[in-house]
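Worked example

This section walks through a single chain of length 478. The input is the sequence exactly as stored; nothing has been trimmed or padded.
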Amino acid sequence: MASDPSLSSPPPLSSTATAMAKPQNLPPLCLSSRTSKPWLARKCRLKPDHLTDTLIFTGGAMAALLLIYAIYSLCNPTAITTTSFSEVKPQNPNPPLAHDCHHPKLQNPFSTIPTFYDDPNLSYRVEKPIKNWDQNRRQWMEQNPSLSLNSEEKVLLVTGSQAKPCRNPVGDHLLLRFFKNKVDYCRLHGYDIFYNTLLFQPKMFTFWSKIPTVKAAMLAHPEVEWVYWVDSDAAFTDMEFKLPLQKYRDHNLIVHGWDHLVYQNRSWTSLNAGIFLIRNCQWSMDFMEVWASFGPQSPNYEEAGKTQTSVLSDRLFSASDDQSALVYLLLTERDKWGDKIFLENSYYFEGYWVEIIGTYENITRRYEDMEKAQPILRRRKPEKLAMKFGELREPYLKEAGNGRFSWRRPFVTHFTGCQPCSGDHNKIYSGENCWKGMERALNFADNQVLRNFGFVHEDLSDSASVKPLPFDFPASVG
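Given that input, the structure is written out below as tokens.
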């Protein structure tokens, strides 16, 4: 019968090991609960007391250092992370210490200090005039300095659509994609956005609804300098382009238009009122009050339409509309309003979709050629830095031009006359051309966003699929 290995004699031990193996000299943890073989205890080693104390002290010190590191990381995350792949140096080579970490102190929202919001006579309704808005807004900003930082650069984009589902079967889907496009643009540029689906003045329907909405938005957001109305059927198609606000420092209302078409041709299409930038100030409150007086809530609505038709040379319909009213005010009250209204035509502040949608592929090729020649432009980057890299592109776009016949991306593509929700498009277009054109424009814009996530639509007519981009695109694809 073979001997049981577990019962065989243990290997010989040195005298020191033999002494350590004696059960009476071992601490309890060195004894196995499953065996009585004392020689297994040779794997245990007794530690001197001072060594145990040292280990405890070292562990505590390391825990304290980790805690300090964590606090420092929260206060100054950019100072912790570096990469050998980046040639960009940190903006602040001497980051603040942990004790310098602070946040702007917000005004107590329950403060008893009165503001214009506490005035019982304040009304958000378009029929009620707003007075002393510049003074009231300034006082509010002084009381809320943390919300008023860089206020001259703050923009609130306002848009909207009807409250009920669209009659056009693809209308709700298209409006969702148009809204996503605006959200993408606002996220990239740090703008706030408000999407309204209601009539703040029930009688001011369709295109008239923008005026009550913009007025209410100004009151709700005194911290912003500009309110940017963009029709629901308009898409941003140059996601890098930033509004040149400094250019408009002496003006309060910016619309796409041409002086000679307004003042010489007296045309109702001399400008487009579907997209405008308006300053949050008393002048704007006064102007919108007059502008709204041509609307359907006014007892003079029918007469206003006849007056507009008599003054504007190419107007063929009778009902008063917001765009004709704006042209009419420029013609008849130019001394009062004209100096503060800027007719922008140096770039596609809003571009006519028919002349744009066929240019997207050529524009894409020109931009890719530019990036092949300039490695910095094709470098991968986080979305938060995308706009900074966009600024680097400007010197290479000097020869591109702006507007029609340019190979620069059009800032806004506006699908005037298409009516994506109702489907009641202008008869000079086909519905198919409108919907396909919208899909192309939205995918063209979406590619500029998706690029930061490593994907693009390969075909602008295919909204459902994307392809991954290889490293160093487009240089890596020939």
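What to look for: The chain has a mean pLDDT of 84.
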